[in-house]
Amino acid sequence: MDLDRVSEVLADEPAYRSRQVWEWAARGARSYAEMTNVSTAMRARLEEEVPFSTLELAHEAVSSDGTIKALFHTHEGHPLEAVLMRFRDGRRSVCVSSQSGCPLTCTFCATGQMQFRRNLTQWEILDQALHFRRKEPIDHVVFMGMGEPMLNVDAVFAAARRLPDVGVTHRRTTISTVGWLPGLTRFIDEVEEPIRLALSLHAPADALRSEIMPVNDRYPLDDVLAECNRYFELRRRKVFVEYVMLDGVNDSVEHATELAELLDSYIFKVNLIPYNPTGMYDGSSRERIQEFKDTLHAAGFSPTVRLTRGRDIAAACGQLAATA
Ligand code: SAH
């Protein structure tokens, strides 16, 4: 829901009116009709002038593990996807997109293969979460869908700051980045809320990282890691490192040792991601992932392996390409 539009339409009403409308939407209302403390006349005006969602749902798929993927279109028809993950412990986590497509070209990620359209607005980001909030309460949001959040900081920060209204605290909100420095620097300096930071690292040295993540040529490891260290100094919060396990590419014991030397285990928490097929690589075997994990463990880290969700409906990390 575009709350700026709501405020414009209700400009001659007291300001708390648009706040009331937002509170209903944030709590999962399905229509203006449900907003019983807003007058019928006002509701009729909104009905006429402000679409209930900025996004149109084009398709929805449900995985055998309960994960739901939604394909939306913006008003101009640009595609984007969001995913609801349901975990056995009751956690409900929504993965949102920050852009339609992505201008970066990480070789293992399907989103990089599709056409980049544009940055999403804060309302388009929030409407992805609200779509799922209308089904059930949600408690986590990760900015790990399509796009690079640090290329769209104003909208991403604004959306993240409103998430507590939707039931998602800052500590349960994570913004993931390839290490796009201008945006990362702004995040560190401007965001005082305890929103979590994740870094997509995927390689322990520049040559390999540049091969699989061309953005590394622009913002090399030393600079990105120095900025993460500054974040820890300033905010005293750990940085989550994402490391996708590509068979024969970045998954050897030597790579693990190099990674352990590169990172301070006090500052970085490593999360190993089983590769989700996108046609370009093979994923590392379980044994290889275990070995990598053990090596990090022996070096003082407490690595975790990410639970794969929604692979059968191409809803897993790196598979969002808006094909259906
Ligand atoms: N652009 C941001 C936000 C997207 S997060 C970023 O890269 O951090 C999506 C995560 O999934 C990133 O860590 C990305 O590297 C990872 N990923 C991409 N393709 C993948 C794949 N095929 N299998 C598993 N993880 C993948």
Structural description of this entry:
With 324 residues, this protein is an alpha/beta fold. The protein has helices at 3-9, 16-26, 40-49, 122-133, 153-166, 181-190, 206-212, 215-218, 221-235, 253-262, 286-298; strands at residues 56-62, 68-73, 79-86, 92-95, 99-100, 118-119, 140-143, 173-177, 196-200, 239-245, 268-274, 304-305. A ten-stranded mixed beta sheet has the order 1-2-3-4-7-8-9-10-11-12. A hairpin with a 5-residue loop joins strand 2 and strand 3. The longest helix has 15 residues, at 221-235. The site of S-adenosyl-L-homocysteine has 18 residues, from strand 8 and strand 10.
| Overall pLDDT level | 96
Helix-strand sequence: HHHEEEEEEHEHEHEHHHEHEHE
Please bin the fraction of helical residues: 25-40%
Q: Can you count the beta strands? A: 12
- Largest sheet entry: 10 strands, mixed
The N- to C-terminal Cα distance equals 24 Å
Q: Determine the structural class based on helices, strands and strand pairing.
A: alpha/beta
Strand order within the widest beta sheet = 1-2-3-4-7-8-9-10-11-12
List ligands, each type once.
Answer: S-adenosyl-L-homocysteine
User: What's the gyration radius in Å?
Assistant: 20 Å
Tell me the number of helical segments per DSSP (H or I, 4 or more residues long): 11
Q: Tell me the strand percentage band.
A: 15-25%
State the shape: elongated
Parts with pLDDT < 50 across at least 5 consecutive residues: none
